[in-house]
Amino acid sequence: MNNYAFRLLNVFAESTFGGNPLCVFEDARGLNESTMLALAAQFNLSETTFVLPSDRASAQVRVFTPGYEMPFAGHPALGTAHVVRDVFQTGDNLSLEFQAGVVPVTARQDVWTFAAPHAGKPKTAASTLTDGEIASLLGLSEDDLLASPIWVNTGSDQLLIAVNSTDAVRRARPDSARLDIWPQSSLGRKAAYVFAFDSARPGSVLSRYFFATKSGGFSEDPGTGSACANLGGWLLANETKLPAAFEIEQGEAVGRPNLLRLSVTESGEIHVGGRVIEIGRGVIAL
Fold this sequence. Notes:
Radius of gyration: 18 Å
CATH superfamily of the largest domain: Diaminopimelate Epimerase, Chain A, domain 1
Strand order of the largest sheet: 1-2-3-4-6-7-8-17
Structural class: alpha+beta
Strand content: 35-45%
Oligomer: single chain
């Protein structure tokens, strides 16, 4: 029987019980893919990560939801970097190898920032549904849309839906009765990132991320770093004046406030950051 140490953290957290929870296994050598998936299902968090040796970066990271592996995810990148710094004494500048590529990560104390794993202009694609159809899937009208929804990929592809007010973000309600026609990502995931620029607070964005569950309904992620990076891709696709910086608020509707920091440089580099708080440690015996 082998023991595997893990840590529990909250990412994008400004308070102990805010942010998006994450479990990180410090040393996953000896664990196969099916066991990693089973452990992710056991913890039942949005993602669980497994740290392995890498000859390309400070560490290799595999990211699992309770149902499948992901090529990259934002809050796991930051939370795992926090653990790697402590375990391997890397200092505040390190890199992590994901399936999507090597991601540089830096820290100022416990605020971590990653550079999205994209090169050049982010990949974008139009939705196969009309604007009105997508709006109605969220319980909104076409008039609520700021722009046509598009797929953006700066590490993992997601459907981004810009609406014209924070009120529209708060009113969004995914229609699970029409799950069969919901747009689907390359991973087979049915999800949507809904956001609005806050006219009352320049530089602030309110966002929500909905995703379909195995039970057939929808759940809401409290903080989604990969979607925040894709918002940076959306800014590039819409030729927003650069450099640009925003604070993204997410998790309000599920009682888990998250604060994500997004910046896009003049050269098009996308950076996403947030505070990481460790709340516990343990060991699994297998």
